[in-house]
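Readers of this paper often ask what the protein records in our data store actually look like. Below, we set out a record of this kind in full and without editing:
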Amino acid sequence: MTRPRTGRLRGVLTLLVALIVVGLLSSLPFDLGGVRWYEGRAGEPVDAQAFRVSVARVGLARTVQLSSATVTTDQTYVLVRVRYDIRRRPGGLGEVRLVTADGYRYAPLTATGTYSIAPPPVEPGYTTSGVLVFEVPADKAVGASMEFQNLVVYTHYRPAARVLDVVTASTERAPDDTFEVGPEVASVEVTP
């Protein structure tokens, strides 16, 4: 006769433990999507534990002059000089997005219209840098931030960095509204 009661007691205890686990997980500083965010501001390094990234310089232009071609847009190019170093395992930047104040997300221009010279993958102990180019509507550039996600998953989350105030009202437009991007802009150096 005590068996049905024991079964009910186990069921209640299991439910109680499940509720406690869900409550604890929802209070942790990372979302259940497996990404843990670290924030900072443009001009200063953002330490995301597994990697460190900084937005070193930002410029706005309507024309980008490459060594092989010149491209012009009716919108605005946001050119971002990025420095990146990794701590534990070789790797590179995963997903990079420019996020406007109203929440629109833009990927850097790449392979199809290769204007960006993204930082190459790097070994721990080295810093890499490059220029990322985003094409956004002119009225959406000011107030934009950037998000960087590492490709490597550490334990149960993927580290990510959010850099605020990337484009401000005081961000300079390039002289003659033209920005030159040469092949030497991507580099790798020993991390100090």
